Amino acid sequence: MAGADSSSEHLLVRLVSRRHVKASDASIAPHVLAVSNLDLVPQTAPVSMLCLYPPPSTGCGGFSAVIEAFEVGLPGLLNHFFPLAGRIGSDPRSGLPEVRCGNQGAELVVAEATGVALASLDYGTATSSLDRILLPHADDVALSVHLASFACGGFTVAWCTNHVLVDGSALGMLVRAWSELARSGTLAPGGRPSHDRSLFRPRSPPSYSAALHESYVPLDEVAQRQPGGSTVAGAAGGIVKLLYYTEAREVERLRDAASREGHRASRVEALSAYIWKALAGLAGGEGHGRCSMGWVVDGRRRLTAPAGFRDAAVRIYFGNLSTLVVREASAQEILRMPLPEVAAMARETVTAPAYDEYFQELVDWVEEHKERRYAAAASQGVGCPAVIVSALASSALQLDTDFGFGHAALVLPMGAAARLSSGFLRILARPGGDGSWIVAASVWPRLAAALDSDENHLFQPLTAEHLGLVAPQDHRSRL
Description:
Pfam families: Transferase. The chain has helices at 63-80, 168-184, 210-214, 222-225, 248-258, 267-285, 311-315, 331-336, 339-351, 355-367, 445-452, and strands at 13-21, 31-34, 46-53, 87-90, 97-101, 106-113, 144-150, 155-162, 216-218, 240-246, 290-298, 322-330, 374-376, 386-391, 410-414, 422-429, 437-443, 460-461. By secondary structure, the chain is α+β, with helices and mostly antiparallel strands.
């Protein structure tokens, strides 16, 4: 909860200016980018990546220098990410989303958090603090970059776009490219994105398994297909959005506990097993016989190309190339199983699919289900309570966020919303590479209470001290 001296409840971000910045390469012809079938899985929804920067070191310049860096560098970035200078519209024949790449310009928004220092914010409760930094922007804008200054000299950069264009890995690719381009003036060949949606074409005729079809649910049927009764959310229901800090030594302790002879569990597998047991305890207590865990899997790391995917282009693909794998189990079974066995179930669930065929089946399935909006059943809590884990800490572990003003103290993807019987956890590496984690949780109050009550303090509410914004043991010294 917010501390007594927190300024979060008084945080007001004032708009200073809003302008459009166009790509500088006049040779790029205007065109329409039809989204791929994989882009149609999430459909249109706002997503963003928030980067929080402490006051730059002496000699880097103040906030005016940050603004100038974007004014000078953003046109070059848009040359490589040209669709982000366009507008999101609808195909007049099909009604499906498309991107009109006419270099209408990305937004550059400048704002000011008057009288508030970064160190005074309540980082434990994202809704009361960080959510307030993002300013509204038009739904059709493909990219809106928000720069906000704070009284301490620190600042934030929010990369705001739409889920129909990117997944979390693609958004991280954008941030990395900006940092590299701003510092060096060029992008290495491996950092130049591919926007080729033809990589993911359906077969003729489309072919997919019954299991894949059953794993998705029409959004207009979600309410009646969620578990009835009180649910693990408790009688009051609702979702809380929290940020936790997990020390590296506690992650390793949990990893040791989740390992067994002959196999050492990964850090993500160990945390997944811990969460699964916590979920099972709540689900069993509420009368739900079963519960599920799901993991967001990045296809860029899993596809091997035999199914027709071009490997090199896949690795640099800028779009949606993630999927959700799910395992449902008896709550009592999960509670009885030793932690290493639960971790093994997590590992088997993520590694079992033949991803080349799975992604092709998903492309084929979408081809026959474009007329309605669907979502993964587990992400909506359909069937039984579920928690989804997105382990960005295991893929793009350390985002390069230094565009000339030092590395960010916090990098936080934003946009996913938990449902009545579905929670969401993002595991993020704490900037600095010390092995500690920041966990962004969008969960039910009862699950949050279970995490808070861990006797080893695995989940500590994130503070300005954890982010290096306050000197250790000196909460009176604010930046």
